[in-house]
Design a protein that fits this description.
With 276 residues, this protein is α+β, with helices and mostly antiparallel strands. 17% of the residues lie in helices and 39% in strands.
Length: 276
């Protein structure tokens, strides 16, 4: 009997990292619970629980755990930095943890002051890896506003603007997410330089819409800012939901920030049956 079949329903944990919020389901030792239908139902903030991403913990042969990610529209997310940090904080028994994701094998570390860091791996800077629909310079895309493209296990389109607060994100976000240049759609970041190695960022996430923070987006923005000559390799980013730190090292792009466990809950058998 899988966890979805139990009379008590399905246990979950609500967490967030800098306002980027998640539902976490632990499926270790059992069959996978998440489906597109369940992700859509759970992600509904009126009829479900509500989240930016759903993170499902699974068993892994070559790591401490494996993680799968789902967006609130029921699509799969290849990477999710803040959810990875949150789950690492939940699972870690010691100072470090290895995690198998669609991005590859990631390493997380507890940093103190309630912060957790994860190595999100090297950025994907070739147009095929992002991916883009055709060959072009990822650092200067042929789109209005001269954005840059960076892959972090998922695609990102980063715009550098004078004032991130002034951008009409609800209007521009969905148009850019579905631009033909991005065959797998894209996350969209609007970033302004606010000080030495300091950025203000607002984000439209693929499959989720406007979110308060995006970990992989923060990594992509920091990488693009450095490659454009705007910052060094260590950057502080201020997002709508809080502050994240990115350090592009030789072994990968490290993302550090706060984590919070909000509440534990259980989905009713009736809810699960309605959205099987």
């Amino acid at each position: 009997m899988t966890r979805m079949d139990t009379p008590q329903g399905l246990a979950f944990i609500k967490m967030h990292g800098a306002g980027n919020d998640f539902v976490v389901i632990d499926s270790r030792g059992r069959g996978a619970a998440a489906t597109p239908a369940l992700a859509r139902a759970l992600g509904d903030r009126n009829r479900g629980v509500g989240f930016d991403q759903l993170a499902e913990i699974r068993d892994a042969e070559d790591a401490d755990i494996a993680l799968d990610f789902w967006n609130s529209d029921g699509s799969r997310a290849g990477a999710c930095g803040n959810a990875t940090r949150c789950v690492a904080d939940l699972v870690m028994q010691g100072p470090r943890l290895t995690i198998r994701t669609g991005r590859g094998l990631l390493r997380a570390e507890r940093m103190g002051d309630g912060k957790v860091a994860v190595n999100m791996g090297p950025p994907q800077l070739d147009w095929r890896e992002v991916p883009l629909a055709h060959e072009t310079d990822p650092l200067h895309l042929p789109l209005s506003g001269d954005p840059a493209a960076v892959g972090m296990g998922n695609p990102h389109c980063v715009f550098f603007v004078p004032e991130a607060e002034a951008v009409d994100l609800p209007s521009l976000g969905p148009k850019l997410e579905h631009d033909p240049l991005f065959p797998q759609r894209t996350n969209v970041e609007f970033v302004s330089l606010t000080g030495p190695d300091r950025l203000r960022m607002r984000v439209w996430e693929r499959g989720a819409g406007i979110t308060l923070a995006c970990g992989s987006g923060a990594c992509a923005a920091a990488v693009a800012a450095h490659l454009r000559g705007l910052t060094g390799r260590r950057v502080v980013l201020d997002l709508d939901g809080g502050r994240l730190e990115v350090d592009w090292r030789e072994d990968g792009v490290w993302l550090t920030g706060p984590v919070a466990r909000v509440f534990d809950g259980r989905l009713s058998p009736a809810f699960l049956a309605a959205h099987a």
